Amino acid sequence: MNQNDDLQDLDLLDIISERHLGLRKIAEQLWNDRSNIYISNSEWFIMARVYKKQPTISYVTKHVDISRQATHKFIKNLESKGLVEINNVVNNKKEKSIKLTALGEECYEKNAALKADLEQKIADKIGIEQLNRLKEILKLDWEL
Please, what are the domains in the chain? Predict the structure, then answer.
């Protein structure tokens, strides 16, 4: 029984969830096979919010679907790996900002290239028109 057989009897939410989990697992494995710096999916989500920006930690915490405590733990992990730096915010003693280091940007960009390769493999399998249509459908406001 292949993975496609497993998807046949699922509803939309479960199909999307299964595909998402599968793709995330593949992306994580691709990264880990090529790098000696382990970065979890949650850490990638945080890095995506920070890439080419310098948001406050509270902004990042509000815009990732991770608990505040866990987000702070992941940010500390990223800092210990040399991927982000945390700075004080000017004129605000309580707030801190976060930004990717040069190493963090390099990792983020390499991972983006791995994901682009994965997307190309999907396009090769289902067709570029189908892939673009799928992306457009997922971007639509479903008014839920």
Answer: 3-139 (1.10.10.10)
